[in-house]
């Protein structure tokens, strides 16, 4: 049975930001495959690479932090050690104080997992959401996934 269209793996070419992560032996579980909890860590590494890329850092303004409000992972295929994965990231949508990221893990050109997350810009003093600055908003829109 094929996955529904919104769950179908996308091509690596559909994600403008990519980073490579090495799989570690410690990432494996009793069944010998990469543990499901490690997938969340791999996606986190991709988000960090997305925000701190030297060529276009997306650091929030002083006094604000980006926090994750929601994380969903679709496990598509088993992942085994040793090797590397490509963590691919794209902006799915931009709101007033939040934005959605679409991410995927690729191994040897095959998509093994997909993730969707909602991130919110939070004021550190009030601990509440704060509007995205126009510069950050424009940068995020420029990396939006094309339908």
Explain how this protein is built:
- It is built from 2 helices and 5 strands; from the N terminus they run E-H-E-E-E-E-H.
- By secondary structure, it is α+β, with helices and mostly antiparallel strands.
- It has one domain: Thiol Ester Dehydrase, Chain A.
- A 5-stranded antiparallel beta sheet has the order 1-3-4-5-2.
- The longest helix has 17 residues, at 36-52.
- The radius of gyration is 16 Å and the shape is globular.
CATH architecture: Roll
Number of helices: 2
- The proportion of residues in beta strands is 35-45%
CA-based shape: globular
Distance between the termini: 24 Å
Number of domains: 1
Name the CATH superfamily assignment: Hotdog Thioesterase
Kindly report the oligomeric state of this protein.
single chain
CATH topology: Thiol Ester Dehydrase, Chain A
User: How many beta-strand runs?
Assistant: 5
Strand order of the largest sheet: 1-3-4-5-2
Q: Give the uncertain stretches in residue-range form.
A: 1-5
Rg value: 16 Å
């Amino acid at each position: 049975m094929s996955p529904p269209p919104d769950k179908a793996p996308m091509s690596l070419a559909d994600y403008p930001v990519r980073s490579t992560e090495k799989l570690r032996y410690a990432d494996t579980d009793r069944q010998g495959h990469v543990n499901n909890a490690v997938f969340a860590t791999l996606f986190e590494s991709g988000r960090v690479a997305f925000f701190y890329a030297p060529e276009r850092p997306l650091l929030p303004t002083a006094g604000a932090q980006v926090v994750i409000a929601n994380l969903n992972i679709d496990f598509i295929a088993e992942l085994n050690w040793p090797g590397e994965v490509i963590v691919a990231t794209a902006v799915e949508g931009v709101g007033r104080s939040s934005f959605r990221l679409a991410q995927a893990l690729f191994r040897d050109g095959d998509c093994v997992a997909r993730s969707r997350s909602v991130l919110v810009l939070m004021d550190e003093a009030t601990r509440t959401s704060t509007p995205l600055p126009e510069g950050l908003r424009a940068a995020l829109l420029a990396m939006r996934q094309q339908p």
